[in-house]
Amino acid sequence: MTEQLREDSASTVVAQVRAPDARIPRRAVRDERPPAERILDGAEAMFAQHGYTGSSLRMIAASVNVSHPGLLHHFPSKASLLFGVIDRLEAAAQTALDRCAALDGDPTAVVDHIVDVLDPCSPANQLLAVLDTEAVNCDFPGRFRIARLRRVYEHILARCAESLSRPGGPRRDVSPEFVARALMSLAMGHAVRERSVRALQREAHHDDPRDDLRAIVVLLLTP
């Protein structure tokens, strides 16, 4: 009887040691990245949700737990923060362009690349769609760079479409530039739709935007 009590007591002690009290809050994982990177992450999220015009430096600072003076130490103005965000978007476009050059001769890989580059569900493309809309304002600080970035993506898409239209490929009676503009417009529109219509849907509607992009590529480039 005594031995049984000892075993029960020992088991209870072990269980208490192994099972932490759920009421004790866990220490938050510290973000070791440089503050400037965290600030840019916060700016991207805020600009995508509220637009450049609708976001403030204080809102962005609060979203990443940085003081307003701390943010100003890295980015002295909202425009400089916007330029940092656009730097990231331009770097992503350059990566997409470099990869496009390595895919020539593989139609399946080219189509997959088009869908990946234009994915309306990606945060980067949803951000670009919002900034592209704001670029209609002549006073928007990033107007030229955003317009140029859209043209870069159109160039990437035209290059992909051209590789699919070469002899032995699908069709040649559709201009690669037209395909590029059509795909870019569809992707930007779908990026907005994902943040509006999709957010209000309560059930599946079989309207995956990636499927739409793939269907348009086939429609435009297949005889």
TrEMBL record:
PROSITE patterns: HTH_TETR_2 (PS50977). It comes from the Bacteria. Residues 33-93 form the HTH tetR-type domain. Keywords: DNA-binding, Transcription, Transcription regulation. InterPro entries: Homeodomain-like_sf, HTH-type_TetR-like_transc_reg, HTH_TetR. Transmembrane segments: none annotated. SUPFAM superfamilies: Homeodomain-like. Gene3D superfamilies: Tetracycline Repressor, domain 2. Residues 56-75 bind DNA. Pfam families: TetR_N. The keyword Membrane does not apply. One of its GO terms (molecular function) is transcription cis-regulatory region binding. This is Transcriptional regulator.
